[in-house]
Amino acid sequence: xxxxxxxxxxxxxxxxxxxxxxxxxxxxxxxxxxxxxxxxxxxxxxxxxxxxxxxxxxxxxxxxxxxxxxxxxxxxxxxxxxxxxxxxxxxxxxxxxxxxxxxxxxxxxxxxxxxxxxxxxxxxxxxxxxxxxxxxx
Amino acid sequence: xxxxxxxxxxxxxxxxxxxxxxxxxxxxxxxxxxxxxxxxxxxxxxxxxxxxxxxxxxxxxxxxxxxxxxxxxxxxxxxxxxxxxxxxxxxxxxxxxxxxxxxxxxxxxxxxxxxxxxxxxxxxxxxxxxxxxxxxx
Amino acid sequence: xxxxxxxxxxxxxxxxxxxxxxxxxxxxxxxxxxxxxxxxxxxxxxxxxxxxxxxxxxxxxxxxxxxxxxxxxxxxxxxxxxxxxxxxxxxxxxxxxxxxxxxxxxxxxxxxxxxxxxxxxxxxxxxxxxxxxxxxx
Amino acid sequence: xxxxxxxxxxxxxxxxxxxxxxxxxxxxxxxxxxxxxxxxxxxxxxxxxxxxxxxxxxxxxxxxxxxxxxxxxxxxxxxxxxxxxxxxxxxxxxxxxxxxxxxxxxxxxxxxxxxxxxxxxxxxxxxxxxxxxxxxx
Lengths: 137, 137, 137, 137
Hints:
Four copies of one chain form a homotetramer.
Chain A: H1 7-15, H2 18-23, E1 25-31, E2 34-40, H3 54-73, E3 77-86, E4 94-104, E5 108-119, E6 122-135
Antiparallel strand pairs in A: 1-2, 2-4, 3-6, 4-5, 5-6
């Protein structure tokens, strides 16, 4: 049996990731089948044209998918892999990576993540991801 | 006509990415159809179990794919998206992301990237990626 | 300017695909941002264990994604690529591949497809796909 | 312990797939870490513009990846999912899907597949795929 993860425990797991701390990521929502991660835009997260670096988007997608999968499978999960497709340059005040479980079995969860750039005048999808999260062992 | 990119120019592009500087990424090889990016393992790049964070691997895959594509298409390229699959926990001294062009047309390059963890006693593949790089506009 | 595609025109395009005829695929829904393709299960579409072959699912995902993208971009589109993840063996009476546009720009549409197996007692997701459709030229 | 698969056994598995028979697929090479599947071009495998249908390419990629994974993991494997990217219209006399294992653990194999169209005057890559094959159970 897997232990249910509370939003508090999920937040502690994120805080225990030094790389997430380096990027300033926060878990702003965590519920069964759903996880939302936010990263505020900072100068040191950009690429050469002033857009948020694709690597920040792929980090956020990876992590949000994992937390969404963990919300239904428990804490002992690994992301097997994922796909991300970029649609627009990532410009705005913050990145919001919103992941949900499409469907799950006892050992695997198929998850998707929509990546929004949020600005003062609204938000828009800039990328989308899909991946599979599995129980370890 | 696209302008050919020299290794020096490619290095300058990487240096112009604040996020790559934050992660300490270096372009250790750049030739037509090939690009190798290295990231030394540091405490602040890890996840909660002491492995290199998946987001660092996906960053390196994304960027190495883009540089490999740019090596044949020119500097004005964007990565449309990519897939990464993780096979093993990423443990070692440094990450080496080795990308090459599988095939290209005038406007698109299909690229792959093997992600190795390098340690004092050798190296091993921990993940693999594939993506498409396209000319802008 | 792209020409809008009516459901009738979309149906004619599908009928003009000999491979879709071979598989008995039908376009059961077509609206702006959405396309649903159905394939009835037949003995000659199975794999060695009696499940619907993964290749039928990937065919349906590919085609449904393309029609969904075409519903917003016009008839002159190509699917650049897609990802499909399998969650369960595909058992049932028919496959229903339900694709929708997540977000689109003038030239590209980011689409997803949920693949359901439908049986007399209900339906369930067996796989999920994501891909990008682009205007030709 | 997994049982090693001989080329003869692998051929029997392919022959036991009704969908592979419908498409006329043949396993022309099978060795540890490698599998090559061929599909001759026929009128009923095309799409509306006279190219080989993307669904035939995705079928071949899926199946070749699975056989390559099975060559190192044994017969009881499933493909968890895969990505395919199309680079050019598929024109020629036959499709050759050449898959190999990039790296494997005891339970999973990370595989890639290059898809060539073969014609009387040569061959060229038209698509490329990557996926993961895993032991069942």
